[in-house]
Amino acid sequence: MQLIFLNKNDLNYKDYGFVDSDFELVVDLVLPQKSSFMVNKENLNISIGDIAVLKEKNYSYVGLVETTEIADKGKTKVQCKDFKELFNIKVPIKSFTGDVANFLSTTISAHFINNSDVLQNLNYLKIDLRASKQGSLNFDDDNLMKITDLIEIVTKTYGINLHYKVEFIKGAFSKIVIIIDSTDKGIKLKSDFKAIRDLVINDSDEQIVNKVIYYPKSDNKTYKTTKTYYLLTNGDISENKNDGNRYKNVSLSSFYYSDNEYANLSTKARSEMIGSSLDHNITFSIHTNNGLINPLENLFLGDYIEFYAKQKVYDSVVTQIKFKNSFAEAELTLGEFRIKLTEKIKLLSKNMNSNIGNVAVSKGGVTDLDGGVF
């Protein structure tokens, strides 16, 4: 298979090389990851930040060159980050209600296609908007957020997928298409599905938050009542403490709210409780010739999976896809919890420095988990 290198500014061809079986391709919804390829050239005409396109049968990958290193004689190790890291910039984000897929599309366009600074525009970018999901995103006032964080929020909450492909005109690279698609149906996957092997399940030490209390701040002028919300076992949110679908073991979080936050308390509560439901880590390898699901072909980051383990059912999301040395088998990760110490540190740093915690999401538009049982 070939790794083709293109100029980031204009998509002009720069160089190419063949990749042997020593490679690792990783895409991740939660944390930035590096993919690594051993290329059969020692002197590649490339620069940091160039675009790398890998094409192998039905699999394609678009990345950004991050490091290069001369390895064995006649070979270069090239490390890339995922193409979405191009959007790792902070921009003003305001609260929004409506089509969240279109909101994501217009946000990307405003800063990379229709920007008033022509040097920031990338004329080869094209957005193919295939999804439409109604919902609400509520942010604090005067909020700056990375577009990559916005992608993560919309993906996990509304089943919106972002992936990329390269278009050609008369054999020349023409466009990089950002495909914004939706998962119309989630899937139900059983742990004993014959294509699965090396299954490892790790829950975090914390129980899923299923009760949130909001206390009024002492300086509130208008709203002075305490509001309590409960997560139900069917995924709904209720204010009825006597609802029969409440979790029997209470796990509580408490916050203060200001007058201007009152209208969004229910969606903030949902964000808090639904977010904690992804606090697990399920990894397994899956043979890609299983005839049903194939990562990066018909299964993408952000797809919903209801995973049936022996002792528990997990409502989860695909958060990492990895190929190592072959496309015959993929390693999948479900959930946001991370096991490796380096990833835990990155995740902690991200949570401390990001404004994701200030977002609230509504339930509207969540994918129906009825796409098959495997």
Task: Describe the structure concisely for a colleague.
By secondary structure, the protein is mainly β.
Q: Level of helix content?
A: 10-25%
Which runs of at least 5 residues are low in confidence (pLDDT < 50)? 352-367
Structural class: mainly beta
Outline: globular
Average predicted confidence as pLDDT: 84
CA-CA gap between termini? 31 Å
How are the strands of the biggest sheet laid out side by side? 1-2-3-6-5-4
> What is the H-and-E element order?
EEEEEEEEHEEEHEEEEEEEEHEEEEHE
Largest sheet: 6 strands, antiparallel, barrel
Radius of gyration: 22 Å
**Total number of β-strand segments?**
24
Q: How many H/I helical runs?
A: 4
Strand proportion, as a percent range, falls in: 35-45%
Overview of this protein structure:
The chain has 374 residues and is mainly β. A six-stranded antiparallel β-barrel has the order 1-2-3-6-5-4. The protein has a four-stranded mixed β-sheet with strand order 18-17-16-19, covered by helices on one side. The protein has a three-stranded antiparallel β-sheet with strand order 8-10-24. Mean pLDDT is 84; it is low at 352-367. The protein is built from four helices and 24 strands.
Structural features:
24 strands, 4 helices, single chain, mainly beta, 374 residues, four-stranded mixed β-sheet, 43% strand, six-stranded antiparallel barrel
Topology:
Layout: E1 2-6, E2 13-28, E3 34-39, E4 51-56, E5 59-70, E6 76-82, E7 90-93, E8 96-99, H1 100-112, E9 125-129, E10 134-138, E11 143-146, H2 147-158, E12 160-169, E13 172-182, E14 187-190, E15 196-203, E16 211-216, E17 227-231, E18 237-238, E19 252-257, H3 265-276, E20 280-287, E21 304-308, E22 313-324, E23 329-334, H4 341-353, E24 360-361
Parallel strand pairs: 9-13, 14-21, 16-19
Antiparallel strand pairs: 1-2, 1-4, 2-3, 2-22, 3-6, 4-5, 5-6, 7-11, 8-10, 10-24, 12-13, 15-20, 16-17, 17-18, 20-23, 21-22, 22-23
Helix pairs in contact: 1-2
